[in-house]
UniProtKB/TrEMBL annotation:
Signal peptide: none annotated. This is SAM-dependent methyltransferase. The keyword Iron-sulfur does not apply. Keywords: Methyltransferase, Transferase. GO terms for biological process: methylation.
Amino acid sequence: MTSEFDAALLGQTDLLHLPDGRALLLPIARWSATPCPADEQLLRRCTGPVLDLGCGPGRLVTALGRRGVIALGVDSSPVAVRLTTDRGGAALCRDLFDRLPAEGRWQQILLADGNIGIGGDPVVLLRRVHRLLSPTGHALIEVEPPGTGLRRERVRLTGSDFDWAWVGADAIGLLAVVTGFRVTELLDHSGRWFAVLRKEVRDDATTATG
């Protein structure tokens, strides 16, 4: 989530407006509910420590904490952070591109609920995720169904314009390659799709000959 989503989190709107005049219905109820079976595709792969980027109202961070998994949410929305802490989760109000705790040491990073779209440039975002993860860590990313490809739009929410992106299951593989990852799992549960990305291991050692 970003600070533009404050109105949605407060129940003032649930429509994201696209440049062509269409409006997308935001799943506010799901963001604010307890984790559903599809969310378990992410949660059961988290051993911690976990960084949830764009944590929103904190359903995943809170669920992980209750399971004894170290987890921290990050969101630029003060409303989202307050909602998360009110539920008992740990969250930090900060832009995810600003300095964050334990950079390079997180074992899992979550980009759930379409948050791969934050900023409108998934390549820049995945490179940021790569720097935040430990060498053995992995990213757990919710993507769009196959056939979506990669889309970028200037969208509007309650009068604020901002850049957003959508990444389909058919596009995440190429994005992974160009950002230093490889896709190790692609999962479908009840129409929601998830990708597991691990850092690509490169052997930079040179062998002397002759």
